[in-house]
Amino acid sequence: MIVFYAFAAVAIGASLLVIAQRNPIYSVLLLIASFGALSGLYVMLDAPFVAVIQIVVYAGAIMVLFLFVVMLLNAPQEDTDMDERRPLPVHKGAMKFGGLLAAALAGELVWALTRSSDPGAFSGGATDSVAAIGRSLFTDYAFAFEVTSVLILVAMLGAVVLAHRDRRSRASRAAVGPVGNVLPQKP
Amino acid sequence: MPTLNHFLLLSAVLFAIGTAGVFLRRNLITILLSIEIMLNAVNLSFVAFGRAFGSTDGQIIVFFVMTVAAAEAAVGLAIVIGLFRHRESLNPDRFTQLRW
Fold this sequence. Notes:
The structure holds two protein chains of two kinds.
Chain A: H1 2-20, H2 24-44, H3 48-73, H4 92-115, H5 129-138, H6 142-163, H7 167-176
Helix pairs in contact in A: 1-2, 2-3
Chain B: H1 4-24, H2 28-52, H3 57-87
């Protein structure tokens, strides 16, 4: 029980700090800490497979991708824009409303959960998880598994197409002026 | 021992934190990170329900959610790179035109 509260506190605290940080790099690193705590919770739920891929895939691959993009963009640390020529309308009211909506969502979820009857501790033994997962992933869910590979392929192609900088637009922008030349250009 | 409701409460709190991040932050990368928080909150409740019902289906759907999250992160970050090149800003309030 103490272990559960420790992991939950780390997960909630790190997630809160993620959205409180100004610097995106700290946000990414704190989110990795939060994922580590969630991985511990998965171990408590007798789900070692999910715990491992949480660390390997999420913290190891996806978050490193985020970190890579943050460092590549050398992103502005302040999200209020510092460009005085183009002042930005500040939506204080909208942000207050958004915070209110998020708080209302949290209140509703907690209210619904406290009203529902607690089924008590988990009954039954743990399933033989990794072998059972592998078996049903390649029998019952074989079609979904294969469709997933197509999804990954499409996402890969899409990322390459979107992030690719074509020569034509670079030439036209160079004619206008060095507006977009914040990234080091390849020779 | 923690019960199912403990895990569901934690999942609800994490999901609300992610929602608040999407609403409150004005930085595209932080918004994407908040979406990841929400996906993880839902993953936690999937695994907790799977454990409560003694089935592995919860963990299998977590596998698929993670795959979709990886694809979403790759495409979303590529869009962020393109937008940042175009506008030199990560503030979503800057992007008011559909025209490139």
